[in-house]
What we know:
This protein is 49% helix and 12% strand. It is built from 19 helices and twelve strands.
Amino acid sequence: MEEKKITVNTGKQNNQRRSNQKKNNQKRRKRKTGNNNSSNNNTTSLPVKKSAEEMRKWFAEYSDLVSQYQDPKKTMNVSFQTYSKDDLRSFMENPYANYKNLRSISRFLYNRSRVYKRLVVYFANMIDLKMRSVIPKFNFLDQTDEQSVLQKYYETLTQLEVMNLPLEFLKAYMTCFREDVFFGAAYCDQDGFFILPIDSERCRVTGLYKDGSLAFHMDMSYFSSNKDLLEFWGEPFQSMYEAYEKDQQNGKWQPMPDANAVCLKYNIDDLTTPLPPFMGIFDSLINLEDLKEITAISDEQRIYKLLAMSIPLLSASREVNDFAVDLDTMAKFYNRITDVIPDYANIVLTPSKIDTVSFEHDQTTDVNKVENATKNIMKVAGGQALVGDSGSTAINMAISTDENEAISSLLPQTEAIVNRLLSFVIKDPAKVVFHEVTTFSKDKYRENLIRSATYGVPVKTDLAIASGFSELDIIRKGYLEKMLNIQDLYTPLQSSNTMNTTGLGDKKNGRPSMGDDDISEDGEASRDKRERSG
């Protein structure tokens, strides 16, 4: 088995990679100029870099084809290989050697098992990238150009506005919880943002950036038989494929450029082998599906009826098979009855009495078995909030554990990737910080912000974001309210929160005293005590 080495991308390597990409772009521009000036030159120029919006529209049309890596002009039949429990147990004996099969089982169960799909979606949707802070970079010890700081802050907010990070990274998170690792190429410009998913079987984690995010290489031999995709995907794949064609022996695996690389891995402690995070419950999930099928068969048997149609015998006769009704007549009645009985019933002719044979089964017991098996899987894998059979305290503790598991490794990686991508679109962008807040802890997070704001902590923007507004929306709403004089148009009703407190220090002011008939015994005792003390 080929050894996979993990290297660290230094600043020198990053600069060299950018330099190589710049040289490739210059070469393509020269070829294009040569083609325009010379009619004898038959070399065709490669398309320019695709915008995020162009890639989004193309992927929306050919998303199924991209996931299967098929020619868009060819028909495609999507199928999933089925696996038995024996296959799974064989793979689990040596998971590192069978990680591809285990990830294939995970994809199969994701489409086959509703329980498994809910579990993956549950964890993937926990991460809320709207809960963030955007902090400009400046040295507060030196004299700061406020206009320059505000300009960089505005450019960063504007870029984040068009990137729609929660939607783009959600598909990456779902892949991570299903298959452990996600590989993608980011198309990021001032007009939009799009992450093109890449088949994980054609990519390999090969290094770490200084910020801790993952670098990866892609197998370029795939494009040898799919060159038409190079036209659709544009850069950086065209430059990567050109490098492969120059040296096919050593250039098969090409690094994804820093400006495009998006790689997320759930099991961050093992960068070499991608193993599905929930592979420990695969056996239980297969057993659950088998139990559902058995229950379905039992339900069919429960309503099944067998009708026995008796042929009467002559009571005084001593001969064998001396029937009181002609058999041909019985056959006619038999045929008439079979034409009207439902599918879940059948009929037989017998010389005995008419009777019914039922295949009764305890349906409630079967339902409880499936329900209990589902709950046990959720309790083991997480997602106890999806079954909700415990008290609120136990559920909250379970959710807290699930939150830590969901965000501990993926959220820091996401933050590093987003800041790296922004640096290629904006010069000296503001820093984006994602908070460890999930959809379940948002209300508690908001309460903590309110408490911090009362002590003067500068979190007003964070509080507004927690209320559902983006940074730009907050600023624009603030300016709009000022322009419309909202504070004068809407005067709040008089209350203890809005009334003037001047003079309330006087003991005569405040709540009126209660009468002797209205006060309780404890209240009367307290009043007497105050009066005795003066």
